[in-house]
Amino acid sequence: MAPVLSFSSVGMRYAGGTEALAGITLSVGPREFVAVIGPSGCGKTTMLRLASGLMEATEGSVNVGTGRIGYVFQDPTLLAWRTVRSNVELLGELRRLPRKERRRRAEEAIELVGLSDFVRHRPRTLSGGMRMRVSLARSLTMQPELFLLDEPFGTLDEITRERLNDELLQLFAAHPFAALFVTHSVTEAVFLSTRVVVLSDRPGRILGEFDVPFDYPRSSRLRFDPDFARLASRVYACLRGVAS
Amino acid sequence: MSAAARHTARPISSLVSRSVPPLIVFGMVIGLWYAVSYLLLSPDRRFLVPPPDAVLRVGFLEPANRAELLDGLRLSAEVALLGLLLAAAIGVLLAIAMSRARWLERSLHPYLVILQTIPILAMVPLLGFWFGYDFGTRVLVCVLIALFPIVTNTLFGLRSVDEAHHDLFTLHRASGLTRLWKLLLPAALPSIFTGLRISAGLSVIGAIVGDFFFRQGEPGIGVLIDLYRARLQSEQLFAAVILSSLLGLSVFLVFGALARRVVGSWHESARDHAAG
User: Which chain B residue has its CA at the smallest distance from A123's CA?
Assistant: First the structure.
């Protein structure tokens, strides 16, 4: 099947001369969940920005096989003056969906992330984890075929983070999307993905790719499986090679 | 005490604890005022500080005096309010234009700073000389004096929007107008209200003090203040000063309440001023 997203020999050099990415060739097929891991400043976010069309590559080409992209930022980027419901409806408004359809999709998405009791709340009254759920729900309303996730759980505590990992996997199991997921956490990368890509220090190049053989749905106990630990330590070793 | 009783008791006790101290101070001020009138000043010099009851009797309760005062107050309030509204409309539009075009900001900003630093009140005679001393010129003084805080605060608010929020709107192909209406203006609202509140106070000052220069036409409360001083009508002078202070205070309260109503449910800044 044609890939949903493909990078061929992509390089990115910023106007100031900083080279963020070099020679990236990577493709993400339908229903593939690719995690990208690498040291800070190695161009992970740049990959997402290139994939979303927010930026254009200075070398090579980026091809996206769908117009339905969900972008989840590091920060939940909710609008403080809107309630949960109206935040989730925002993208439908921007895309000029009819009001009824917008409302229906928003309610469905809010239900999926388990926030139906909070539709009238404003972001400031929610916890960090709940805000991120609202942000996920907002992306879901666009029924994305490609999810771009930029360290969405990076600022959450460990317990909330693991819970949201589980929930994201449930969403992935129930909805046919492809994902490119940027993270700093090896455990998170291996737990969520079908493939882990390790990037080098700036300019980011692909150092290694690891297929993750575990079947979905994955239970949260997988994190304690010996095979899981072995794979995670191989990814970790690859990443360590970068750091040293 | 049961939980329910505690819930109902708390607002009342907080109202009491919040209103009693200022009331005590108010009582002390009135007491001091009487002391100055009756103990410090001899009867022939008492006109310098007439006692509160005389101010109330002559200034507020005598129908002719009261009508004169209230007419002056109404005129000054109209001038201040119209000036403020115009300054708000012009200021917000100007800030939007400046936020969209860097060159416009670069060309206008120095002059806005100059507008803020030159004493507008010192220019009132010049403005009167050019445009006459009627209602329009009084309003113009208020606009000039109130414009700067609105422009700078609005601009700051428009600029403070997160990059990621902009990205979100860009990704979903929001038009410039949609971005302005659904992202920039709501995000700037708390700052706009901060500007409005500062400008409201300035506009009242502009209307009252500017009035000193407007001898022709209907007298505003500033003209009355100067007139009562010249005629040694000290009870009425006090009444007029009290009324103009109340005008300033009520403008401050009204804008505080408005800000709380509009942005209080989602923005901290509006709640911090709740006591105002």
Answer: B266
